[in-house]
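Sequence design from tokenized structure. All designs in this work follow the same two-part layout: the structure record, then the generated sequence. An example of the structure record is given first.
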């Protein structure tokens, strides 16, 4: 199979404009003749479904939650990037493009990233028009804050709930189209198979999660916008229902899966507290604007803190190691996520961790400096040029509360510690997946008519995603890319007519889904689905996590293959198929996670370099930084499914070519 990325010719800055100008169109009077399925209703899916509904297509949208408002996009807190340069600090489309390529460690497709930067400003305009309550500065202009991997302020935000507000904006647009009858919404439905007719994506098999009924739905094009696969690790910051099933089903039907080993570990999560924990909680990266990350300089102080004999507030300033500021003075606490995560791991591995959990893993995120700084500014602005320490702290806390109040409240409810008074405890955790289904420039997979958007595809982030870029990509795909590229594909479908769900391909797909469901329900094993999911998560975190090596990856591949055998022979799924059955839902999803986990380890094993979130311990410099191999690994690794034995999967390579960017060592010092 030869990969054709369909990148347009011409200068980089004009590729997207010229490409749009030459795409085929569907006239408004022909759009009601065409059906589109959208799987997933987060930012990418909701914006796409709303856009196509407004254009006049017949849209069927599916989500496994009880409402699109429950999509995991709601959990994004810190902000959304856009090159508006409102702060007049030198930002531009080119700088956003460059920061994203560099942040991804030169493993992203240049043309896609530039398009993302180009449309970023329009996203903000769209969301403001929808009523998204972005923060504003004193003059009434939209405010910005900094995020990791940049030296400008380009992140638009709504307190610490940006994802929620953006999703409500997209949901309002979607709801309008539902009310007009242009979008039919299927809540509590999960896609379990893609249906192909004559090689083209023509529909899906979905399970009604309330009744258990299997349903056939046809369309002229299918859009997968079902999010990422971080829950392969069991413990992650993702919602517990987040899964890879939609992406994995189309992979098994012929869509290549690209760069599965590129997983983002987020540096600011609440540390693991026990073996029975079911998920992890993210503290927004925006907090790194105001918080300083540190551990004690002395091991004995770290040991005393873990033993409960010493409080962090008792550690003097000279006895604190602000290790990010020490190692990366140019960016300090705002280095990219992969860099910050590895630095925290290095300190904890060396014995300086401060959390009294099984692994002693944890560092501090301290706001005391910011409280004093902003408190003094606030006092001065009020005309008090000689404020007391008490007044400074009171005003500083008020400033923090206005900026991040809901985040601080959330942290206190979870940990029972007041982050205004004592530093937050944080540690890296699995957060985002840069890998995903391979798509071309038009966001179409290797299956004609099957498009993939948002985190479900691989296209825009390379080996590491910069903070606040996920929301940007989801809305860019849904509002400003897919309406053009899907219409281009559908221009040849005007005369196709309604696609019947009585075709043998639909019957076969439904039969295959029913067989898998029956297999689990009739298995009569002895162990729960979670038992196997947790075991998979431990293998993945320990051997395909923040640090990877050849021996561990080979062990992971073998151990996951063995786990798969045990899973199918000994899993117990109670209940029946014709009812609400959460254990059956989990079993179907974990089956896909197990196969994906093995592919992730294989992908990490073949990539003999360190880049972004993929850190091979054999490939690092004397200071512990990543060592890329641009001569041999400057490619997208896209895997073709070759049957249930995942070790037989075939690797295809898309060479990455850079016209505008000069590849260099990534330096944040």
């Amino acid at each position: 199979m030869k990969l054709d990325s369909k990148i347009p010719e011409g200068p980089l800055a004009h590729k997207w404009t010229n490409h749009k100008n030459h795409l085929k169109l569907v006239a408004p009077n022909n759009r009601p003749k065409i059906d589109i399925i959208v799987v997933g209703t987060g930012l990418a899916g909701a914006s796409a479904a709303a856009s196509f509904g407004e254009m006049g297509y017949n849209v069927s949208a599916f989500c496994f939650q009880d409402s699109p408002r429950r999509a995991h996009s709601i959990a994004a807190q810190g902000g959304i990037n856009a090159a508006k340069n409102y702060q007049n600090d030198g930002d531009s489309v080119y700088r956003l493009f460059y920061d994203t390529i560099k942040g991804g460690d030169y493993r992203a497709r240049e043309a896609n990233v530039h398009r993302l930067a180009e449309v970023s400003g329009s996203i903000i305009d769209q969301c403001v028009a929808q009523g998204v309550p972005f923060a504003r500065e004193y003059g009434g202009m939209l405010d910005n804050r900094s995020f990791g991997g940049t030296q400008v302020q380009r992140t638009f935000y709504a307190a610490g709930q940006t994802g929620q507000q953006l999703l409500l904006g997209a949901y309002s647009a979607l709801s309008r189209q539902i009310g007009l009858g242009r979008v039919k919404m299927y809540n509590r439905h999960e896609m379990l198979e893609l249906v192909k007719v004559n090689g083209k994506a023509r529909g899906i098999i979905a399970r009604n999660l309330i009744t258990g009924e299997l349903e056939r739905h046809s369309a002229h094009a299918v859009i997968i916008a079902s999010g990422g696969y971080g829950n392969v690790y069991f413990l992650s910051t993702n919602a517990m229902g987040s899964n890879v099933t939609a992406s994995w089903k189309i992979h098994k039907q012929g869509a290549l899966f690209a760069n599965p080993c590129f997983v983002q570990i987020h540096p600011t999560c609440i540390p693991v507290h026990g073996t029975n924990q079911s998920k992890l909680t993210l503290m927004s990266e925006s907090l790194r604007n105001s918080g300083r990350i540190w551990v004690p300089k002395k091991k004995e102080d770290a040991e005393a803190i873990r033993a409960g004999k010493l409080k962090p507030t008792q550690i003097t300033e000279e006895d604190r190691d602000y290790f990010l500021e020490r190692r990366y003075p140019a960016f300090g606490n705002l280095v990219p996520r992969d860099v910050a995560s590895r630095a925290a791991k290095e300190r904890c591995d060396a014995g300086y961790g401060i959390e009294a959990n099984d692994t002693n893993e944890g560092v501090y995120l301290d706001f005391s400096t910011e409280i004093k700084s902003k408190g003094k500014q606030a006092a001065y602005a009020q005309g008090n040029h000689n404020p007391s320490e008490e007044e400074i702290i009171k005003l500083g806390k008020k400033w923090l509360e206005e900026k991040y109040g809901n985040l601080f409240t959330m942290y206190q409810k979870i940990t029972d510690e007041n982050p205004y008074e004592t530093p937050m405890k944080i540690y890296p955790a699995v957060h985002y997946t840069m890998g995903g289904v391979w798509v071309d420039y038009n966001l179409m997979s290797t299956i004609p008519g099957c498009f993939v958007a948002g985190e479900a595809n691989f296209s825009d982030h390379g080996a590491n995603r910069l903070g606040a870029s996920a929301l940007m990509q989801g809305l860019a795909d849904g509002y400003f890319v897919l309406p053009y590229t899907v219409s281009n594909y559908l221009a040849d479908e005007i005369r196709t007519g309604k696609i019947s769900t009585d075709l043998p391909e639909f019957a076969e797909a439904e039969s295959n889904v029913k067989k898998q469901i029956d297999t689990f329900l009739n298995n009569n094993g002895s162990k729960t689905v979670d038992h196997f999911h947790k075991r998979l998560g431990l293998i993945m975190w320990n051997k395909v996590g923040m640090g990877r090596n050849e021996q561990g990856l080979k062990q992971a591949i073998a151990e996951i293959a063995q786990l798969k055998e045990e899973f199918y022979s000994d899993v117990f799924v109670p209940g029946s198929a014709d009812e609400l059955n959460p254990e059956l839902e989990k079993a179907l999803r974990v089956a896909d996670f197990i196969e994906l986990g093995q592919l992730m380890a294989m992908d990490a094993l073949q990539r003999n370099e360190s880049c972004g979130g993929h850190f091979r311990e054999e490939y690092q410099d004397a200071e512990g930084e990543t060592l890329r191999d641009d001569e041999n690994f400057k490619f997208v690794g896209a895997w073709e499914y070759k049957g249930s034995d995942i070790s037989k999967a075939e690797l295809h390579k898309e060479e990455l070519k850079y016209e505008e960017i000069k590849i260099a060592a990534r330096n944040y010092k």
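The longest helix spans residues 389-415. We note this feature because it recurs in several other targets discussed in the main text.
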